[in-house]
């Protein structure tokens, strides 16, 4: 898992949650239950993280989005896509 | 019948060159409207062959998709009545078919397949549409009082109420909207709310009638797909636009961008206007979009009335919900309660509702008692003050309309939603859904103090209960239209509302 990608996700989650610093974000916390992110917040989060990391958002479906419940799952899913890009 | 828009779109192929695009997160097909029309004709032929006759009913319980559109248009063509069920709110089971007298129910819920032969996977519509040998039936001519669909109201409690929608009411709304917004070639209307809401299907009908593009997306995909689609119009609700506002502000601040530029990055660079309805919008949100090159227009209407008023280019007044549409009349009772009369009422009673509900809401000739308090200004703009049943009568006899107070509290960036209660008839208690977690109790208290300074003594909030988890559709505290469910919120926070020491207090 790329440290750079993890830092980006932490940073963007902290931007939405605000009162929690990026390095204090619990990667395994449920984004909805623990940090109060709505599904709209979550898709906005994914949009900006994809922009930051040059991953094409159209790689993901609504089902993928629903499955990404924690920051770590976002990092892992985006890492897989980045690796795929690298190896093509 | 010749001037009926519904009859025109089922009887006449649309102008070539305009498209229906399906925009999921991962993309989707784009289909020329002439092909949508032709495919709907083939589906209509196959529905007839399945034994469906004019007046029979089919249900559709599925997320937005091309098949939904084809079924709806096919049903209109052969006089079959649709019932659109919102996913998540209804279960695709035989009981649903029996309750609503459905011959078939098309659904995208795979678990339903096989439970009953009347339950059909919605993907089957593609097979029906692919039958190029099917001869489309002659379109039925709908008289103005014909019912084309059953629509359901998201009441605050119990079973949703259902009522049939007349062709005359649909025609009248489509015509009035077109007069105000002149949709046409070059426009692409972005629809992400469920097609089970009849008004969202209007934009498909509008595209066929007036020759423009329409994009069908989903609630989850909307924010991610708008900039790719570059629509000219976005149909939304206040909760959606509030989330967009926060995102734009945050992106602008972080990237040192002009908010108008951050807005273009989210909505695309072709927006002509944004449409908001279904729930009251905050003045701050409306001002924000207007100030950032994204004109937004609020309107007013109920399921029972369809669109009654709408601000629009050239006739928009801050704080109002616009002027009354042609064919509608707003009557203000001596108690300030708004009633609506129409040349073509949606209906004159519910088909599905608790005993007495039709009599409570509908008056003679389809007059609808809205239960909202409002007034018309000297230029005919309607202002909604709140719900008649949201008026709190204090023990000193003073009446307090809670909605303006709730809006004042919601002006805080810390507060997403707010509902005011009066547990003892002496002082007001607000339950707020915080905009972020953990909630900033200090900031909420500071905003409360500021709000109280400008409120009349009887309108001041004594205490705020901060909801542990944000109100959402999932936890049952918001309706599907993102309106707070007052009764459910009271039930969930009853002990905090009534306990003297609980919550954030005025400093």
From TrEMBL, chain A:
Stretches assigned to the Carrier domain: 9-74
Domain of life per record: Bacteria
UniProt cross-references to Pfam families, sorted A to Z: PP-binding (PF00550)
Annotated protein name in UniProt: Phosphopantetheine-binding protein
Species of the source: Microtetraspora glauca
